[in-house]
Design brief:
- Chain A has 281 residues and is an all-alpha fold.
- Chain A contains eleven helices and no strands.
- In chain A, helix 1 (7-56) runs parallel beside helix 6.
- Chain A is globular, with a radius of gyration of 24 Å.
- The two termini of chain A are 28 Å apart.
- By secondary structure, chain B is α/β, with parallel strands linked by helices.
- Chain B has one domain (2-227): Rossmann fold, CATH 3.40.50.300.
- Helices cover 31% and strands 26% of the residues of chain B.
- Chain B has helices at 40-47, 88-98, 104-114, 127-139, 157-168, 208-215, 219-227, and strands at 2-11, 14-24, 29-33, 55-60, 73-76, 145-149, 176-180, 193-198, 201-207.
- A six-stranded mixed β-sheet of chain B has the order 5-6-7-3-8-9, sandwiched between helices. Chain B has a three-stranded antiparallel β-sheet with strand order 2-1-4, covered by helices on one side.
- In chain B, helix 3 packs antiparallel against helix 4 (127-139).
- Classes of the chains: A mainly alpha (281), B alpha/beta (229).
- At the A-B interface, helix 1, helix 5 and helix 11 of A face helix 2 of B.
- Chain A: The chain crosses the membrane at residues 20-41, 79-102, 122-149, 188-208, 217-237, 252-275.
- Chain A: This is ABC-2 family transporter protein.
- Chain A: Keywords: Membrane, Transmembrane, Transmembrane helix.
- Chain B: Residues 2-224 form the ABC transporter domain.
Chain lengths: 281, 229
């Protein structure tokens, strides 16, 4: 790698290469499970239609009345699509913890080398943070691409008479998980802020444990609870004051964004202090 | 000069370092000596800012440890510190990427000196060869100071001889070396200064050659006096 690359880029690239195997596994799992869903669910549906038609000598209208249609949305709500998303989310959550602890445990202690690099230790922190986000966006992109591949597969298998006219984009907009994960709405940035805040608080908690051992776990849990209380407090203001008109929805969003930014910045400063002054190999 | 002034360190209730003060100079080999658990490794970790101290000051050429100083001070711990999945060649490339003081020519020299195979994966190397890789990562840096933690621990006699040769070679020439070791006999004749630790304090600090000339005692003799009561 060229020396001109900034340390952050170099470390991010290095962390990415360490994540790649795990990420490719998650991507492969997503695509494979989705493909099974795109083929298995419509085929099973068509089997049911054919069986019903033959056994009951039913007309198309009678079949439709009894079994209804299959939409792409129905397919996306199946476990074949939802389970890989859940696995991806939990996988990356696990990796967010593992990305730190793997440097300390096992046969070798790579934490020594990383902490002795002639770069700011926060570079290390940011490279790990960026890589988790790259992982998140890669999995989201994989899921989106998979849906675009899946739609023609499903529509090719299901007879057009029994295929709901609900389109791909409409199916995405109806899906509770896609609404959160995909950039479909303008307020998607809120989801990103929530994600970044959670990750920063989690990293701070890990650094507290790495700095103060068992005491650090207690500090970390305390810190996470305070952070959570700060962010959730405005949501309960109306109940506390028994006044539904105390804060408008748009005001609440602004307050929440400001509070999450405050929590994120305080997490960054706490992490910087810990990684520079308190961390122990 | 590496300078420690009144350094205190506790692990929980246990006081490990209790007001440690000493200096390690450039172009000298300073040896930290003491029984297990006396705080030798903690001192090296503290110098490299890998363990926070509770009180006191540690400076390197008058400056507190910061990112750029890792280009001036190399630490060779007694555990393998590169990724096990890396080959020796990849580990060298990694160092070259981040350290402006990495000396590729010297790295090749050390590889030849230790007869390492750069395509070997670190996890598959013997403990002795992993120790050599650790030495390679530290000695190939154009640094002013080298800190070594128990470089002979768990190493066979032939590897030990090779490592001993390092101390009399130009690989450490003109650099300040601060070393902790139990196997002092191997390098006793090369040591300039000895810092004897006991119960978290400095029991005695002396020049090895002067001790030999004035009192006729070797470093091991002094150690026997201290630790055998």
């Amino acid at each position: 790698m060229k020396k001109s690359l900034s340390p952050l880029l170099k470390l991010t690239n290095f962390e990415l290469s360490r994540l790649s195997k795990f990420l490719f596994t998650l991507m492969g799992l997503t695509v494979l499970a989705n493909l099974v869903g795109y083929i298995y669910i419509p085929m099973k549906f068509m089997d049911k239609i054919n069986k019903f038609t033959i056994e009951s000598s039913a007309t198309t209208e009678e079949v439709l009345n009894s079994l209804g249609t299959l939409s792409f949305y129905d397919v996306t709500m199946s476990l074949w699509i939802v389970a890989p998303i859940a696995i991806g989310v939990s996988g990356l959550l696990f990796y967010s913890i593992f990305i730190w602890y793997r440097e300390w445990f096992g046969k070798n202690t790579f934490a020594y080398r990383l902490l002795m690099l002639p770069v700011s230790r926060m570079t290390l922190f940011f490279s790990k943070f960026i890589v988790i986000f790259i992982g998140i966006f890669t999995l989201i992109s994989t899921q989106i691409v998979s849906l675009f591949i899946g739609y023609p597969i499903v529509s090719a298998i299901v007879d057009s008479t029994y295929f709901s006219s609900l389109g791909l984009i409409e199916s995405m907009y109806m899906h509770p998980l896609f609404l959160i994960l995909f950039p479909l709405e303008p307020n998607y940035f809120l989801i990103l802020i929530v994600g970044a805040t959670v990750l920063l608080v989690m990293f701070t908690l890990i650094l507290m444990e790495r700095s103060f051992a068992s005491k650090g776990i207690l500090f970390g849990i305390g810190y996470a609870m305070v952070a959570l209380a700060i962010v959730l407090f405005p949501l309960f203001l109306s109940d506390i004051f028994n006044n539904n008109y105390l804060i408008y929805g748009s005001e609440l969003v602004i307050i929440e964004v400001v509070l999450m930014i405050i929590v994120s910045i305080s997490s960054l400063f706490t992490s910087r202090y810990l990684i520079n002054n308190k961390i122990t190999v | 000069m590496i300078e420690l002034k009144n350094v205190h360190k506790r692990f929980g209730r246990k006081k490990v370092l209790d007001g440690i003060s000493f200096t390690a100079n450039k172009s000298e080999i300073t040896c930290l000596v003491g029984v297990n658990g006396v705080g030798k490794t903690t001192i090296l970790n503290a110098i490299m800012n890998l363990t926070p101290i509770n009180k006191g000051d540690i400076t390197i050429d008058g400056k507190k440890m910061h990112a750029n100083l890792y280009n001036k001070v190399a630490f060779i711990p007694d555990v393998a510190i590169m990724l096990p999945s890396m080959t020796v060649h990849e580990a060298m490339d990694f160092m070259k990427d981040y350290y402006s003081t990495w000396n590729s020519k010297r790295a090749k020299e050390i590889v030849r000196f230790f007869r390492l195979n750069i395509s070997d994966t670190i996890s598959e190397l013997s403990k002795g060869n992993q120790a050599k890789v650790n030495l390679l990562m530290g000695l190939a840096l154009d640094v002013d100071y080298i800190l070594m933690d128990e470089p002979f621990s768990g190493i066979d006699i032939f590897t030990r001889e090779q490592i001993t040769d390092v101390f009399s070679s130009r690989l450490v020439e003109d650099r300040g070396v601060l070393i902790t070791t139990h196997e002092i006999m191997d390098i006793e004749h090369l040591i300039d200064k000895v810092v004897l630790l006991d119960n978290g304090k400095i029991y005695k600090e002396f020049n090895a050659e002067e001790m030999r000339e004035t009192e006729g005692k070797s470093v091991v003799d002094v150690m026997r006096e201290v630790y055998n009561g």
